[in-house]
Structures are given as C-alpha cells and as structure tokens.
Amino acid sequence: MTKLEDLGEVISTDVLVAGSGIAGFPAAIKAKETSPEKDVLIVDKATVGWAGLAPKGGGVFWCIAPEDDLDKFVEYHVKNIGYYLNDQELLYLNAKETYGAAQQLAEWGVKVQRDAQGKLLTGHLLSSRWSHAGADLDMISLLSARARKSGVKLLSKVQIVELLKEGNRIVGAVGFNVIDGRFYIIKAKSTILATGGLNRTAAMFTPHYGEGVAAAYQAGAEMRNAEFGFLIHPRVKGGGNIPNLAFNIHNAAGEYMAEKYMPEVLKEEIYDTAILTPAFVVGVFNEMREGPIRVDMSRTGPERGGPPPELNWNRPKQTSYFTRLRKLSKYSRPAPPNPEAEIGLAAGCSPIRVDHEMKTSLEGLWAIGDTSYNGSAWGGAVCMAPGRMRGSPLMIGLLGGLRSGPAAARAASQAGSPQINYDEVKRLKDEMFAPLQSSQGLLPQDAIQELDGIVSPVENGFSRTKDRMEKVLSRIQGVRQKCSQLYAKDSHGLMKCNEAKSMAVCLEIVFNAALARTESRAYHYREDYPERDDKNWLKWIIVKQEAGKTVLSTEPVPIDKYKFKP
Ligand SMILES: Cc1cc2nc3c(=O)[nH]c(=O)nc-3n(C[C@H](O)[C@H](O)[C@H](O)COP(=O)(O)OP(=O)(O)OC[C@H]3O[C@@H](n4cnc5c(N)ncnc54)[C@H](O)[C@@H]3O)c2cc1C
To answer: Among 356, 414, 438, 448, which lies 20 to 30 A Cα-Cα from 122?
Structure first.
C-alpha cells in the first residue's frame, strides 16, 4: 500500500502560513491568539526571523492619525491614486484600522516610534499629505520571537512550490528544503499565502519572483488589477538614484517637468517621489523621445523633505543599514553636473483577488501582503510598492495579517481533515524535481534574465500598444515553454528553477490583463488608447486559469454603492 510518507516528510497543521515577512508573522500570531489550541506553522524558503523585505526597507508605515480626516483621505485616494477602481469599502476599512494596527505592532514588542507616554508618534514624512509612523528594522526578528513565544512553529529553508487541492478547497502545499532537497507535504486546514509578489527591478536589491501568486493562479484562484503592477521612476541614466531627482529634471528646452506636468504637487511643496502622477510619468516618457532630459539639483536640493521633527526619528538599525548601503551602492555616487536622466521600470505583480478578510476565491486559501496588494483592490489602479502611498506596503501587509489570521483559524476549526491524493502528490513531486534529472538545457538565471530583458524596456513594460504587447506576451510564453528544459545541479538551483517559472507565469498574467484594458488609466498607459474611458472601463479585469487555459472576464466596479463617483 502506498503512503504519503514514502514520498517525503508529511506535516499536518491547522493553519499554514507561507512566508515570514510583515504579513506572515502577524497572520500567524493572530491565528494562534484566536485559537491557541490550533497548530500554526510558518514556513519560509529563507531563514524565518530574518527574511522578507521589511528588514531591508525604510520602516515607514502609512498610519492615519486620529486627527486626520478619513473622508478627505479616501476621496483623495480614489480620485488621484486609484482612479475609481478602488474597493472603496476596503479602502475605508484599511485607513480606519492603520493606527490600531501600528499600536498592535508596538504591543508585540516592535520598536514603533512612540513618545514618553507611549503614544504613537505620527507625522508627515517628506511633507506628504498623509501621516506616517515608523519602526526600526529589527521588526521581523522581534515578531519572530513573539510568534515563537505564543507557540507558532517555524520552518526555515523550505520553498513552497504548489498548493494541494481537495476538490475546490486548498488543503496545504508541497515544497522542498532548498539546502538538502528533502520533499515536504504539508497538510493544512487553512493556508495563508504571504510569499510576496513579483518584484523585479534594476533599482531594488531584493527581488521576488511571485511564486505564491503563480501557485495560487495555477490552483485556479482569481487575479484582479494585474495590469497595474508596474512602477515607473525617473533616475540618472544607467541606474543611479538621487533623492528628489524627479523634481529636478528638465527637458532640452530647459522646462522643469514637475512644473509642467504636476504643478499641483509642487504647489503643495510635497517632495515625496511616491506621489509622482501618471501625467508626469507619461510627460517625461514622451519628452525623452524628443531628446535627452537632464537633472539639475540646484532646483530643489536633496535636503528638502525627510522626516519632520515631530516624528523624533530615532531608529539606529535603520540608520546604520542605510549608511552602509549608501557606501556600497551607486545611489551615493556623486552625479556629474547635469547628468542625463531616464525612466526606470520596476516589474511588479501582486494580483491575487481577496475579499475583506483576505480570503481568495478558493476555499481554504487566504493571500496577504504583496501577494494581493493589487488584487484586494483597496488601492485601485495603482502600481506596486510604494504604490503611490508611502508606507502602504508595510501597513497593508500588517493589516492583511491581522485580518486573515483569525479568519483562517476560525475556518480551520470548522474544516475536516484534509484528504490528500497520493498520485497527485507523486505527480507534483516528479515535476518539481525534474530539473535535477538533466545536466543540460536552460539555466534558471538565463530564463530570468531573458524575462527581464523582455519587460524592462520602458516601451515594452510601460508604454503599451496592442502590437507590442502581443509580441511581449508571445516572447514570455516562449520562455515559459522553454522552462520545461530547465536544469539544476542542486537544491538551490532547483529553487531558482521554480522562481524562473513563477516569474514567467506572473508576467503572462500581467500582459494578458493589460492587453484587455483598452484605455489608459494610472500607470497603465496605452499609446493606442491614450484616454481614460470611464464609460466602458469602470471595471475590474479578472484573470484565472481553468483546465490549463487562461480565462479573462470583467466585473463592473460597484460604483453606485460607493461614496465617490467620477
Ligand atoms: C528597499 C526597500 C525599501 C522599502 N521601504 C518601505 C517602507 O519604508 N515602507 C513600506 O511600507 N514599504 C517599504 N518597502 C516595501 C515593503 O518592505 C514590502 O512591500 C513588504 O515588506 C512586503 O511584505 P510581505 O510580507 O508581503 O512580503 P515579503 O517581506 O517579501 O515576505 C515574503 C516572504 O516569503 C518568502 N517566500 C517567498 N517565496 C516563497 C516560497 N515559494 N516558499 C516559502 N517562502 C517564500 C520570502 O523569503 C519572504 O521572507 C520597501 C521595499 C524595499 C525593497
């Protein structure tokens, strides 16, 4: 008689959390607090407690202070950032809960900035319109200690590759140890994906490949707002970045682009580059075609912006990390006088569709943080981190964790024991380990580089036309097919193979959605449809996979029931 144990190590848990970042830990801790008798397991392909983007970032949290005007915030966001594709109810809910969420983080031991009386310090970073809170960069190791104390089990160095299904319900996942190659079958009554999104860019130093997104898509979960993931940023030609650069570039005629294309932002003296409007980005892109654009920092010195005094920004780990980073990176290199500028592109994708409790369209599966930043639709037609709202990715991850943990724990209490099909697991295992059977073919890093090369040119990734996108899509599909020839020498190489495959799947989702949206909205810019079309396109595009085929549909945004309408 065949047993699952013959295939690999079998673990049973009530709640499985895949990914141990700012989304995963709060989910695991909350699940355990909700149902202390339940088993909660957190798994990461890196080292739990040190992994994820939060320890390598800015530590800035979007945090609407009690004195801020919630209605004004939501109205501004819907009109100027989400362009009416927001789930306005979720946007309200998120905004309302930011302050309490930051307080919860502090109660768990994270060093969120507070005053002598313990009250959260909030302020307007970079003179931004909305307030922020800040935490030091040891937040993940502190959350890890808290999770361990509350009884959450931790498993490092295991890459989750596929989700397990029983009918339409997700009942866990399979993966392998990226060091010793051991195969894992994790049975779970509830599964929370917190594995981050696709995040590829020359300027960011912590790439992600969207494995959780790809696994959910291949299991049949719906994706939403995938066409809006890409982030565009001006930089010094060749990749160098300077604070405030966007506010200091001019065209060949000496006109300052910020003045020309976003005078309303300059008028308010906001120097937050997250605020760059689509009109500005499109303007810069078109001017670049006319001739070189250049930087002149005498305009708005890099000293403008930064933390306001009321934040009392005292975060030693963040300061030392960024000081070291500046020394190492080309960010710090002094630019030649008036260097040429260009637009850089970051390919992002976080489209898993979720409801207000972060549940996906599949039973037993939740998706939080960067897996569903766009798919939850709170932000509308918005690019990925920082999503034109500084501090929103960390806060959205945290909020998603706080909501999904209790929901997943409650669902686990009502679910029966998962029944796992041996033949299906055997098939998944054989497929997963196939690259180790070959010693020649395609190396995963070559596949990743080829995909980067296809989407990074601004005219492919940002400025879209039907013809170009069809070509891009067919090239991505070509790489996806070639992935059957991937080979790996060891478990680490095998992990890279899964990353390459996942990246191809994610990019296919993005360009399928982008082809369908025949209008321009936010950073989804179509040269062949340059106008926003509210008459036909107040709709979400839903992409899913059925019987191995991509299926697209649209769903009207329920704008009649929302407060803010175009
Ligand atoms: C340089 C930089 C600065 C930033 N600064 C800020 C800021 O100041 N404020 C802000 O709000 N946002 C900021 N961000 C963005 C923010 O850090 C991220 O959006 C956020 O941390 C994402 O959290 P997450 O938990 O969803 O995902 P992640 O932190 O990416 O965690 C995902 C985890 O899943 C694991 N994982 C991935 N795939 C698998 C798999 N297949 N199996 C098992 N484990 C897997 C990863 O190892 C990782 O630990 C910054 C990002 C960068 C890169």
So the answer is: 356
Question: What pLDDT score does 306 carry?
Answer: 60
- Is 423 part of any domain? no
401 in the same domain as 369:
yes
- Peptide bond preceding 386 in cis form (omega within 30 of 0): yes
pLDDT tens readout for residues 457-469: 888 888 899 999 9
Specify the long-range contacts of residues 30-33, CB closer than 8 Å, at least 24 apart: 30/401, 30/402, 30/404, 30/405, 30/406, 30/409, 31/152, 31/190, 31/192, 31/405, 31/406, 31/408, 31/409, 31/412, 32/147, 32/150, 32/151, 32/152, 32/405, 32/409, 33/150, 33/405, 33/406
Band (pLDDT 50/70/90 cuts) for residue 203 is very low
- Rounded to the nearest whole angstrom, what is the distance from the C-alpha of residue 358 to the centroid of ligand 1? 17
Does the beta carbon of 156 sit less than 6 angstroms from any atom of ligand 1?
no
Residue 421 lies in a domain: no
Do 212 and 266 lie in one domain? The reply is: no
pLDDT at position 487 over 50: yes
418/432 Cα distance (integer angstroms): 22
Q: Are residues 195 and 249 in the same domain?
A: no
The ligand 1 atom at the shortest distance from the C-alpha of residue 140 is 29
* Number of structural domains found in the chain: 3
Percentage of the chain beyond pLDDT 70 is 92
pLDDT for the residue 243:
63
| 198 C-alpha to ligand 1 centroid (Å) | 10
Q: Which whole number is the average pLDDT over 403-417?
A: 97
Q: Residue 274: enclosing H or E segment and its boundaries? A: none
Q: What is the pLDDT of residue 162?
A: 98
Stretch 478-490: mean pLDDT = 97
**pTM value?**
0.95
Angle at 169 between CA 164 and CA 170, to 5 degrees: 35
Closest CA to 60 of 137, 154, 143, 3: 137
Task: Please check whether residues 95 and 218 belong to one and the same domain.
Answer: yes
Which CATH number is 523's domain given? 1.20.58.100
Q: What is the structure's pLDDT at 271?
A: 67
Instruction: Please give the pLDDT value at position 200.
Output: 77
Inside any domain, residue 553: no
- State the distance from the centre of ligand 1 to the C-alpha of 199, rounded, in angstroms: 9
